[in-house]
Amino acid sequence: MLKVHFLNVGHGDCTIIEHSNGNLTVIDINNAKDLDITTQQELSLFSQFSFPNNQNKYEINRQKYTYYDSVTAVRGYDIQLTNPIEFLQNNYSNKNIFRYIQTHPDLDHMRGLSALSKTGIEIINFWDHQHNKKPDFNSDSDQENWEEYERLRNGKSNAKVLHLFRGDEGNYWTDDKLEILSPTPNLVKEANNKKNWNEMSYVFRLTYQGYNIIFGGDAEKDAWDEMVNFYGDNLKCDILKASHHGRDSGYHQQAVKLMKPQYTIVSVGKKPETDASNKYRQYSDHVWSTRWRGNITLEIDTNGQANIDSEYDR
Fold first, then answer.
1. Rounded to whole angstroms, how far apart are CA atoms 237 and 243?
2. Which helix (H) or strand (E) holds 309?
3. How confident is the model at residue 122 (pLDDT cuts 50, 70, 90)?
């Protein structure tokens, strides 16, 4: 059986894959204790939006959520964030991470690395890109996480460091077929030149029992343009983890039209001005947000039966 957990980690990303051979893949690891201020402000403005006529039962009554003057709470909003470290310990105790994929070097995709390093959970293979980013830190915690990231990417841990591109293959990628769709070496070079780190983001496709799942990272226009030109109709998938948290900046109309997923998962969703959820609905039967549904889990068994469920049925 294959399990994919799209965790509700607030303004960031973390996806955990339990492969059919038992290995674990972790894609990014944001660890937020509370709703960030930006999220609270977004929730406070949520009542300004009018929903499409085909709004389904999974959406919630927007009038229920009103922002009040606190940095840690939103009235009526009771969905708790998931600590990915605790999730790993509770669900996969005494199990190491076979493959950790740092999609790109943004802090909201790595704010759990320092905490992870203190658990005794080992990373066996560490996927990363070569880049020249020098981040700005908002806190001492940010600096600690970046320093742990630097330790991993510079080979100062026991993890094997891999810089991989489209077309690369591995001995352990075949039980559940794993394909890197992006980046290419040229995209990484251009991302470094432009200092647009999203364009070097890993995008990959996982295939199991005839189902295709595409994980979009934070890829933006240049990367999606390149994938559309290279893959064309071969981008079709069943599940899409939307790029850049479901923002407009990660939405690529032609790519999404080609993928035409039954389910689109957004890690935040429904944000003022920058939200692309309704655009995804043009090509996707269901658009589910971890902000509103909590953790979302996809299971596909050895007979090809698939089930997708979430913590909150809203």
1. 14
2. strand 306-310
3. very high
